[in-house]
Amino acid sequence: MHTRTWITVGAVLCGLSLAGCAGEELEPVSVGLITKQEENPYWVSLKDVAQETADDLDVELSTATGVSDTDVASQEAALADMVAEGVDGILIAPADPVALLPAIQQARDAGVLVIALDTPVDPPEAVDAFFATDNEAAGRSVGEYAAAKVDDLGLDPQVAMLNLSGDISSGELRRMGFLEGFGLDEDDPAIVASVDTQGDRDNAAVRMTQVLAEHPDINVIYTVNEPAALGALAALDAAEVDLDEVVVVSVDGGCRAMREAVRPGDIDATATQYPQNMAREGVRAIAAAVRDGETVSGFLDTGSELVSDDPMDGVESRRVEFGIRTCWGS
């Protein structure tokens, strides 16, 4: 694993206020935001908060997105376009930690500040900074919860893992964190299935259906995000599985899943993350760098919280009311 440098973003100085200092005119700042796709409300929320923050700070924001979490070509084109436009900085949620490195380097060679959001690049120093959830910690928290609930229910764990994709490091970090939190090795016989879903609800439903056909006794389901969890739940419902005998955990913190699946207990616990913090701090950091000469580097943890209405002893968590107050999306 790469060593992470923990940083905090400095306070927004007078140069970032709408009025400036003592009537000073603000220096123009332009920021590009490149997300992965707009089907997942996570990315929509991130984009909306970036625009709100840009408006508050009198920053010009241009945006681009791909058509899936793995659409590298669209992101390469967007990076080139934004460099040609002369933006001061680019916020990018990279679709691939390695494939985008040449395009990112071209942007930095042109003097553009590049901050990765949500998903790291490899190596991490290929960007100026990285603002994201500590995905390994989020995965670890749901793993610890699942292990505690398995003990509480007296289950012999039969684990299915609905992962993202081996090419996307954020998903890999969550998967590794879950294994650590649960106390499982990669080849532990308790893991009866491990499949990729691309974080997509429909894909997850198909893969969960296939897994259930081969392993009908599965009683622990880890899902990389809540769209995958909702797909898994649809498959479980179609198979008439008793959810009281199954532990389902996930990562995200979206409002829909919080209301429709975590509150009624279909998802036993989820680790919330905060795309709004990534967007807000990213725009602020680029504005501060341009207007005040502030240096931006290292890793900023934008936070996560475990949410469940069935708390387990020894596992720190918050109630669903908190999750609904802090969730994102509609």
UniProtKB/TrEMBL annotation:
Keywords: Signal. Belongs to the bacterial solute-binding protein 2 family. Gene3D superfamilies: 3.40.50.2300. GO terms for cellular component: cell envelope. Coiled coil: none annotated. It is found in: Cell envelope. This is Sugar ABC transporter substrate-binding protein. It comes from Ornithinimicrobium pratense. It comes from the Bacteria. It holds the Pfam family Peripla_BP_4. GO terms for molecular function: carbohydrate binding.
